[in-house]
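Homework-ish question, so no full write-ups if that breaks the rules, but can someone show me the predicted structure for this set?
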Amino acid sequence: MAIEFRNVTKTYPDGTVAVDNFSLHVPSHTCTVLLGSSGCGKSTLLRMVNRMVDPTSGAVLIDDDDVATTEPVALRRRIGYVMQDSGLLPHRRVVDNIATVPRLNGASKAEAHRRANELMEIVGLDAAMARRYPRQLSGGQQQRVGVARGLAGDPNILLMDEPFGAVDPLVRVELQRELQRIQTELRKTIIFVTHDIDEALTLGDQIVVLKKGGEVAQIGKPQEIVEAPANDFVAQFLGLDSARRSLNAAPRDGGGWLVSDGRGRPLGVVDTVPDQHTDTD
Amino acid sequence: MEWILNNLPRITDLTLAHLMLALPAVAASFLIAVPIAWAANRVRPLREVVVSGTGLLYAVPSLPLFIVLPILLGTGVRDTFNVIVALTIFGLALMVRSAADALDSVDAGVRLASTAVGYSPAMRFFSVELPLAGPALLAGLRVVSVSTISLVSVSAVLGVQSLGSLFTDGFERAIIPSIAAGIVLTAVLALLLDLLLVAVGRLIMPWARVGQS
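A: Not a homework solution, just the prediction itself:
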């Protein structure tokens, strides 16, 4: 399912403009990352898709249907939503948290639980966790439950609002890898909000770099953004101007090459450096 | 002790009468306070007015209220209904603020998440906000329960039968064991009801006691 933002603007009663005349096409079965600092309106844009926020003007369309014509509660039940700090219900066991949407959609308890168990396997949660309460899980496990809950209603669209923002870097990388694996199998239309450039480059099929007020600084594939930042803002966001992404390799005593960035900060080691390409033909 | 054993049937009757006055009042306070608290939280500018306003009801002296209410309700002074209404008013004075704070304390992230996954506002209230406010509601209810059990005794002055009657009779007739029994049994009853509430809370809110892993 493709999502289309058509000239959406969101102005709050106090005069704050969260998003100003934003347009974007989100292709089906791909992951689009909205990347920007806090206050750029990225979460507001995300919430317009499931009508947690209604635009002041403009429209959001899902497969050419204006979401404003769909009843919000029904709309939300067919769109997955994963948020920071998981947002799990602390008084429900893990299995019941995951079963929430199927239950809301009228599935029997047994059927919803069967679905929940299926999803626990998909997101890599041990079956023993099912009877626990969210509070008894680690941050990373809670986020997995959050992802499972988002997927439980088998939605075509998955909205992810900085879902891995609150977990430590190691777990974050693991969760990103899991999400990639799940996405290759399930191929949902994902909108993923983050302020983490590395996360955006890892997960995005398409990255939208946002300035304040939802102004688009650049739209492109990860490679395009890194190779050809459209302006200083994007370059700065990527850390290009601070030489974070211009890499050098120096031979090591023990063999191999040490890779460092433009500031001399060591990044890692490679065994071999590809031969310099020369125009031979 | 001998006096108590000799008067056991009467003490049992009075204990039951005491409960028949206290329990309906505690239940009514709770059931009326929750919707008031919900509404007060919804209409933000009115919240403090409603919450403080009902709180002030507690300042009304109990004895005059027991006497004035029958005039307003058209019941007799010794009508148990009169007593229950008065006790409910005092219960509300305590419970509305507790309930308003309890409902307010539900985590904003959880509210947002439950809206996002597709709870309708009514379902969200009953299956998310109300249960999560449960432990704080229970704390408020325990105060109301103890306070009501003790307040019931005042109605004995009007001649409504309760454990307070042991106190008033004993005082008039100078029977010390009766006075002592009245005081002790009221306290024991308050304690038992409190334990019962805690037990019910543990039963219906098992999640509230699980710690961090």
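Now go work out the reasoning yourself. Hint: Chain B has one domain: 2-208.
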